[in-house]
């Protein structure tokens, strides 16, 4: 059971005080719902009468195995993972998957297609070049758009087609699942469980959990079972999907605490109406923010309209000086982490699952005020 929600958020100017917490627009690790943190806090020294913290438990104990199994079940239900797919709870972050994907999958033909629509897909392709030959399925000059299906260039003999569904840094997002002859591999690190998806369209999905779902340290992999077992001989045991599938993610110690936190987050998402419920909320939040920005004279949006992300909203003023001024003023108002990624500049508001509507409303007010005064 969740603890009761915090007693009335108090508003001071543009600064909402919710148990002295700020509205944190960090791109990751990012906000978790207050109710989830409070429940974890209440259980932190003695989980469910076990006399110990989840952090102190053997990963093979009965108590932890139940947490693990329940979390698997809740996650599969929320995302609608069909039979024939395994859900793995690993470590190493999205970045380890940049290497793990080609190590395990590129051996089929030695080739793979990558839709490079942003910084992280570019890094993933570069890593895969160590183990096979990769092709850019969507060459582009600037990462401000998303290619249409008929613009994607696919090789006839690729082992897989790779893309990143939400470009966290650039603030662009795929609003369709690309179709390919080869299995589709997707990096969903920054939009997993922010909307419903049809898992059966994918060969493999992975996501670092620290943006939308849990603390840093957990990486979720959803793999079609027939794709495990094709790894290159040099693949380290800890990076073999087959090994992790066979050992049920417990070849070595899994990130126990993060798995427990994911379970709490799944309960919370269920309360929001599941994947479609949270999608409705996320779309509402993003539209509110985009409309507020469009209404100003001062701000321009970085992404093309059709490619806009519902998770990371990127925008800027006409000058770096004014961008700095905006960021400084926002901190004074109790907003944090609105500065854009160092590689692109400007501003970025990350509004993942846990960012409440009030946080977005307060930011919209602040944007309008800043626009008038500058
Ligand atoms: C954050 C992020 C990564 C990198 O994740 P790490 O867990 O830091 O390795 C990869 N891909 C995407 C889309 C991301 O947003």
Summarize the structure.
With 374 residues, the protein is α/β, with parallel strands linked by helices. The chain is built from nine helices and 16 strands. Helix 1 packs across helix 6, helix 3 crosses helix 4 and helix 6 crosses helix 7.
Number of strands: 16
Strand content: 15-25%
**Helical/strand content category:** alpha/beta
* Main sheet properties: 7 strands, mixed
> Can you list the strand order of the major beta sheet?
4-12-11-10-7-5-6
Residue share in helices?
A: 25-40%
User: Overall 3D geometry?
Assistant: globular
End-to-end distance, in Å? 47 Å
The SSE string, one letter per element, is EEEHHEHEHEEEEEEEHHHEEHEEH
Integer-rounded radius of gyration: 21 Å
Task: Give the bound compounds.
Answer: pyridoxal-5'-phosphate
Number of H- or I-type helical stretches:
9
Uncertain ranges: 1-8, 11-17
Summed over residues and divided by their number, the pLDDT gives a mean of 94
Keywords:
alpha/beta, binds pyridoxal-5'-phosphate, 33% helix, 374 residues, seven-stranded mixed β-sheet, 9 helices, three-stranded antiparallel β-sheet
Protein described:
The protein is α/β, with parallel strands linked by helices. The chain is built from 9 helices and 16 strands. It has a 7-stranded mixed sheet with strand order 4-12-11-10-7-5-6. It has a 3-stranded antiparallel sheet with strand order 13-14-16. A hairpin with a 4-residue loop joins strand 8 (166-167) and strand 9 (172-173). The protein is globular and about 60 Å long. It starts with 9 loop residues before the first strand and ends with a helix. Residues 28, 93-95, 120, 164, 168, 187, 189-190, 208, 211 line the site of pyridoxal-5'-phosphate (PLP). The site of pyridoxal-5'-phosphate (PLP) has 12 residues, from helix 3.
């Amino acid at each position: 059971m969740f603890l009761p929600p915090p007693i009335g958020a108090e508003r001071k100017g543009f600064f909402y005080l919710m148990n002295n917490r700020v509205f944190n627009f960090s791109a990751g690790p990012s906000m978790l719902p207050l109710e989830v943190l409070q429940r974890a806090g209440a259980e932190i020294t003695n989980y469910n009468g076990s006399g110990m913290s989840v952090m102190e438990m053997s990963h093979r104990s009965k108590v932890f195995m139940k947490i693990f199994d329940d979390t698997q079940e809740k996650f599969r239900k929320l995302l609608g993972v069909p039979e024939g797919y395994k859900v793995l709870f690993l470590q190493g972050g999205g970045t380890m998957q940049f290497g793990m994907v080609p190590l395990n999958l590129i051996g089929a033909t030695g080739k793979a297609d990558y839709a490079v629509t942003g910084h992280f897909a570019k890094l993933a392709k570069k890593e895969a070049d160590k183990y096979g030959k990769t092709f850019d399925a969507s060459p582009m000059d600037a990462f401000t758009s998303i290619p249409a299906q008929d613009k994607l260039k696919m090789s006839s003999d690729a082992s897989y087609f790779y893309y990143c569904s939400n470009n966290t840094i650039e603030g662009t997002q795929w609003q369709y699942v690309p179709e390919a002859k080869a299995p589709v591999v997707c990096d969903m690190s920054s939009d997993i469980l922010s909307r419903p998806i049809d898992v059966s369209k994918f060969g493999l999905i992975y996501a670092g959990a620290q943006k939308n779902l849990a603390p840093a340290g957990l990486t979720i992999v959803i793999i079609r079972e027939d794709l495990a077992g094709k790894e290159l001989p040099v693949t380290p045991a800890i990076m073999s999907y087959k090994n992790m599938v066979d050992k049920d993610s417990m070849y070595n110690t899994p990130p126990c605490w993060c798995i427990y936190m994911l379970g709490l987050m799944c309960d919370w998402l269920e309360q929001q109406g599941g994947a479609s419920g949270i999608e409705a909320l996320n779309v509402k939040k993003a539209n509110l923010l985009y409309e507020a920005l469009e209404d100003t004279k001062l701000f321009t949006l970085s992404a093309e309209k059709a490619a806009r992300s519902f998770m990371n909203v990127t925008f800027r003023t006409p000058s770096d000086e004014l961008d700095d001024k905006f960021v400084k003023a926002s901190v004074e108002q109790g907003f944090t982490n609105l500065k854009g990624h160092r590689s692109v500049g400007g501003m970025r508001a990350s509004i993942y699952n846990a960012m409440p509507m009030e946080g977005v409303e307060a930011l919209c007010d602040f944007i309008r005020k800043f626009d008038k005064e500058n």
